[in-house]
């Protein structure tokens, strides 16, 4: 599927569902509704922004005057500034929100810019993998196709590999998300009478 091209077409609800970018019955499964003829990119963007805002991460529309790590998105003091003209892939919002979510509460307010730039490779790599695992849980929660996050132009060509891993139950970085208290693996879920990942017990690290 050429995921990028789908973002440049106007679609009604029936056509949107036929592309399988949204999974499930929109009357029963989606919290956010779509107006007839609304662009898919706008629908996905608004759906994701509402979710991010609902879990306690501030999102504001603004402008990004310089190049950002992901187009149209700037992390600033623990919030997401979103430049609608430059945003290319709505799923990137979930990835950046994931970086904020897996940080300690006292550290989130100090997050600005490229959050991995001033960290050692091991620490930055670990946080990146946690953000990826977090964003996959988010697309499952929102009943979106994994391609929304793992789009063809991201992850240095490894997007399909990540899709294959997560959809087959190989949950990369799950132990790390469990360690920071966001979810359980199957064994711990059974002990706590809870649902396992990709279900999340909470979305923000304490």
Description:
This protein has 206 residues and is mostly helical. Helix content is 40%, strand content 5%. It is built from nine helices and three strands; from the N terminus they run αααβββαααααα. The protein has helices at residues 3-6, 13-18, 40-54, 91-101, 105-108, 121-142, 159-167, 174-179, 186-191; strands at residues 59-61, 73-76, 79-82. Strands 1-3-2 form a three-stranded mixed beta sheet. Helix 3 (40-54) packs parallel to helix 4 and helix 4 (91-101) packs across helix 6. It starts with a helix and ends in a 15-residue tail after the last helix. Mean pLDDT is 81; it is low at 1-38.
In short:
With 206 residues, the protein is mainly alpha-helical.
Detail the topology: elements first, then pairings.
Blueprint: H1 3-6, H2 13-18, H3 40-54, E1 59-61, E2 73-76, E3 79-82, H4 91-101, H5 105-108, H6 121-142, H7 159-167, H8 174-179, H9 186-191
Parallel strand pairs: 1-3
Antiparallel strand pairs: 2-3
Helix pairs in contact: 3-4, 4-6
């Amino acid at each position: 599927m050429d995921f990028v091209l789908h973002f440049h077409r106007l679609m009604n609800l029936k056509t949107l569902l036929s592309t399988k970018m949204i999974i499930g019955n929109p009357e029963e499964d989606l919290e956010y509704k779509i107006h007839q003829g609304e662009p898919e990119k706008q629908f996905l963007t608004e759906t994701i922004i509402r979710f991010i805002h609902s879990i306690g991460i501030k999102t504001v529309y603004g402008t990004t005057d310089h190049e950002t790590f992901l187009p149209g998105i700037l992390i600033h003091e623990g919030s997401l500034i979103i430049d609608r003209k430059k945003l290319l892939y709505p799923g990137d919002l979930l990835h950046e929100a994931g970086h904020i979510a897996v940080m300690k509460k006292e550290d989130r307010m100090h997050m600005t810019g490229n959050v991995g730039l001033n960290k050692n490779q091991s620490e930055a790599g670990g946080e990146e993998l946690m953000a990826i695992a977090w964003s996959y849980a988010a697309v499952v929660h929102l009943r979106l196709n994994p391609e929304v996050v793992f789009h063809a132009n991201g992850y240095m060509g490894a997007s399909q590999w990540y899709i294959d891993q997560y959809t087959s139950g190989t949950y990369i970085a799950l132990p790390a998300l469990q360690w920071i208290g966001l979810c359980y693996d199957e064994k711990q879920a059974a002990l706590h009478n809870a649902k396992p990942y990709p279900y999340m017990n909470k979305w923000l690290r304490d």
